[in-house]
Amino acid sequence: MIKIDIVSGFLGSGKTTLIKKMLNDNKHEKVVVLENEFGQIGIDGELIKKDGLEVIELQNGCICCSIKLNFKNTIEEIVEKLNPDRIIIEPTGVGLLSEILIMLNDKKLKKYLKLNSIITVVDGVNYFDYIDNFGEFYEDQIKNAKTIIISKSQLIDHESLNSVINSLKNINENSYIIYEDWNSEEFYELIKNINQLAHFSDEDIKKIKIKDISESMKEISSIALMPIKTYSIKDIEKIFEILETESLGKIIRCKGFVNSGNSLLEFNYVNGNYDIKKSCLKICPKLCIIGTELKFEELKKTFI
Description:
By secondary structure, this protein is of the alpha/beta class. The protein folds into two domains: about 1-215, Rossmann fold (3-Layer(aba) Sandwich); about 220-304, CobW-like, C-terminal domain (Hypothetical Protein Yjia, Chain: A,domain 2), CATH 3.30.1220. It is built from twelve helices and twelve strands. It has a seven-stranded parallel sheet with strand order 3-2-4-1-5-6-7, sandwiched between helices. A five-stranded antiparallel sheet has the order 8-12-9-10-11. Strand 9 and strand 10 form a beta hairpin. The longest helix has 14 residues, at about 70-80. The N and C termini lie far apart (about 45 Å). InterPro entries: CobW-like_C (IPR011629), CobW/HypB/UreG_nucleotide-bd (IPR003495), P-loop_NTPase (IPR027417), Zinc-reg_GTPase_activator (IPR051316). This is GTP-binding protein. One of its GO terms (cellular component) is cytoplasm.
């Protein structure tokens, strides 16, 4: 049986980073990562590919909404053509984890797939902001996880971290919560063996209740750009200062690669926080912006 691991979580929570960490000690298995991007172009897949992993991308939609059939067909194709030991699914940050679990409960898929770990990554810094503004699908990701991993815990104080943990327990009292600093030895020991995070049984499927989030999804949109300009780190920082004012819309996530002359700059903006660094990847510049009430033309002018 091929093991299936799902790494769910809201936009910018750290799903791709976690997958890379989890796979550092998993060199003995043939692993395929199924990457679902909400935007029209793939960014996170490039970050995983550079580590030599097989990445299949589903773009411009959410597994649980517009590309259900494509998702099942892709799983079957992966099994037939690649025959991996493990498939890691990274759904878009605005998807329903419950819907994905039910799709994987398909009789045909269950003949050769076994659900292993169901993980949701929660951004400790932005947790309460997100749960207030995106409650329905945000809570769905928490309710249906068996393991919840808090990211950026080192950036908040002990009292704030406890508040996040208590809130998570109120939503999903049976979950196993990992809150250690991701750079610590304790965290590494907890996640180095993916199979130790397996807490899922077929009985759990029967308890899943799906909500209609179509109205909530309408509020979130994305824009994909292929910028041709050359940027410095200061140029990108100035753009992020503009984004933070919300004059171009409420930007939840902005990520991608831009030209900086002899190399690329890789950047990741999440709800006002960001990091920018040089990238050794040899790819075309591209970026994706996700948010609400986006001013598309103004955003294009800002980056192109």
